[in-house]
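Could you join me in thinking about how sequence relates to backbone shape in a protein? Would you write everything just below, so we can both look at the same thing?
***
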Amino acid sequence: MSQGVQIIDPEERFSLEVEGSSFSLRRIDSATMVALERRCRGQEGSLNDEVLDYVLLEWEEVTSPMGGAAVPCTRENKLRLPAAVKLNILSAAQGLRATG
């Protein structure tokens, strides 16, 4: 039997595995999305960048192509992730229910 749709709790955290890397995420609710949209008005950068920075909390096994050193989970580095990975993260954070 289905548990139905769950509301988004700001304390909810979940993991997403992509290509051997692990990402710690939180979901995003409509009030937070509106606040991020307001912040983006008239500024350089995109709403997707703001959302990615908000939902992506930490990662493991994200490395530099130059020597393979671990890369810290900073806003600048989040924006340097491959587009396919960013889309996967954004999709998971806006899903119906966090898993994992």
In short: The chain has one domain: 14-93. Residues 14-93 form one domain.
